[in-house]
Amino acid sequence: MRTSYTADQIRGAEQALMATLPEGTLMQRAAHGLAAVCAGMLGRVYGSRVLLLVGSGDNGGDALYAGALLARRGARVSAVLAGARTHEAGLAAFLLAGGRVAPDVGAADLVVDGLVGIGGTGALREPYAGLVERAGGPVVAVDVPSGVDASTGQVAGAAVRAQVTVTMGALKSGLLVDPGASRAGHVELVDIGLGPYLPDPDLAALTDPDVAALLPSPGAESDKYRRGVVGIAAGSHAYTGAAVLAVGGALRAGAGMVRYAGPSAPVAQVRTHWPEAVITELDRPSLAGVGRVQAWVLGPGLGTDDWAHELAAQVLASDVPVLIDADALSLVARDHSLLFRSAPVVLTPHAGELSRLLRVARERIEASRLEFVRRAASELNATVLLKGSTTVIAEADRPVRVNLTGSSWLATGGTGDVLSGVAGALLAGGLSGYDAASCAAYLHGLAGTLAADGAPLVSADVATAIPEAMRSLRRARG
Ligand SMILES: NC(=O)C1=CN([C@@H]2O[C@H](COP(=O)(O)OP(=O)(O)OC[C@H]3O[C@@H](n4cnc5c(N)ncnc54)[C@H](OP(=O)(O)O)[C@@H]3O)[C@@H](O)[C@H]2O)[C@@H](O)CC1
Ligand SMILES: [K+]
């Protein structure tokens, strides 16, 4: 499990640790870690040109001490002092090591962004914003890319786009969530001894062994019912493919059995593609005769007419967990009373769907994914998986989970339907909504990477690659 923290949480831990150590120790640890990463990026330190962008706080101090270490190894290091004041001891060490102060940015083999760290607030002010825009060359950001909110990943104006971010003590949440995450590049963590002082994390991200340990696997006693029966209420005369893809996702993710219920057109398609599914053709929106399931997937391609509303109401009146996706999210956005139930609900919106559910502009959601996924989980009393450039999963009183797998090739029609089916299989297999949603996002991202392998994919390929993704996790676990 990887964990991350807000700026305030980091500050609290740093203060507690600092109280046990001689003054300046932490900054020295930070600077040594930073200089080592810079040296690695430069390859040959001697004779290389390094430019430090130095702000008024301790983030600038880290950069100056690291610059001093590089200067002592023969780098030509210059520093633009951008703040109204500069870390005094850091500047003295830098000048003593042969560093020089420059009036403005110039050509460099490496730029070190020490403008602001966890003390930054709001959009970068001048002269910082201009420096960020003028500086050329590969950038290593100190602690967080300047202009990215360390706690939320929000970017309010100009912001550094780093190749590498060297972060001190623990990950900051803004490095895991877009738009901040895509500004951070590769993140290197420098251990400064903060571990014992950190509180419960703000965010958590599952890794291969976590997901391998959570996934249900059949034992000697298993049969199709014990492994979990998933019901899929999806598809319509207009949209048949969504039903095929959701059923495929559920089957490939290891459902003991999939029961599909829908009208004749998608039934014909599902029957052709998935002889494994047990099918009920519906001539009216009723679940009578569909049989017992352990979880429902509701919504892909369902439509939003009265027929769809009635079927959704019946599914949601059941006493098993329900995953609500796509058209069913629109139905719920129009009629929140559909969500009044005691069994678990998992919602899987993208930003546009969440904007309808919360009645908040889509742009605001995209700029502030953490805030709105948390709000949705608490207001709608559900597990909420917000899809997008960073997929995040929220449930009341739990750390938000951030999904770290995925490929840009997954941004294609139908992949969400596969994700619903995968999550439905995991719910039926007994995972909680929180674990089912997080593991489904992880497997789906991994399967997307395997299926794409650097080239376009279609959504059916993602379902096909789910077993390979599971095998790769289990191999990693040994
Ligand atoms: N504490 C520790 O133990 C350790 C800390 N460490 C390091 O210290 C960093 C935190 O240092 P910090 O607290 O001095 O804050 P920091 O981010 O450097 O700058 C804050 C100043 O920036 C300014 N400013 C703010 N927003 C702005 C904006 N939008 N646009 C322009 N300017 C803006 C504002 O200054 P003002 O403008 O008011 O003069 C504010 O006072 C941390 O990230 C890590 O790198 C490590 O060495 C490990 C040990
Ligand atoms: K920085």
From TrEMBL:
Residues binding (6S)-NADPHX: 58-62, 117-123, 128, 143, 242, 301, 350, 417
Residues annotated for K(+) binding in this entry: N59, D113, S146
Superkingdom of origin organism: Bacteria
Binding of AMP, residues: K387, G388, S389, T390, T391, G416
CC cofactor note: Binds 1 potassium ion per subunit.
Domain YjeF C-terminal, chain residue ranges per copy: 207-473
Gene3D superfamilies in the record: 3.40.1190.20, YjeF N-terminal domain
Keyword NADP tagged: yes
rRNA-binding keyword on record: no
Domain YjeF N-terminal per the UniProt entry, residue ranges: 10-200
EC code(s) of this entry: 4.2.1.136, 5.1.99.6
One of the protein's GO biological processes: metabolite repair
Biological function: Catalyzes the dehydration of the S-form of NAD(P)HX at the expense of ADP, which is converted to AMP. Together with NAD(P)HX epimerase, which catalyzes the epimerization of the S- and R-forms, the enzyme allows the repair of both epimers of NAD(P)HX, a damaged form of NAD(P)H that is a result of enzymatic or heat-dependent hydration. Catalyzes the epimerization of the S- and R-forms of NAD(P)HX, a damaged form of NAD(P)H that is a result of enzymatic or heat-dependent hydration. This is a prerequisite for the S-specific NAD(P)H-hydrate dehydratase to allow the repair of both epimers of NAD(P)HX.
Subunit details: Homotetramer.
PANTHER family tied to this protein: ATP-DEPENDENT (S)-NAD(P)H-HYDRATE DEHYDRATASE, ATP-DEPENDENT (S)-NAD(P)H-HYDRATE DEHYDRATASE FAMILY MEMBER
The family this protein is said to belong to: In the C-terminal section; belongs to the NnrD/CARKD family. In the N-terminal section; belongs to the NnrE/AIBP family.
HAMAP family for this protein: NADHX_dehydratase, NADHX_epimerase
Protein name, UniProt field: Bifunctional NAD(P)H-hydrate repair enzyme
Organism the protein comes from: Nonomuraea soli
Gene transcribed to yield this protein: nnrD
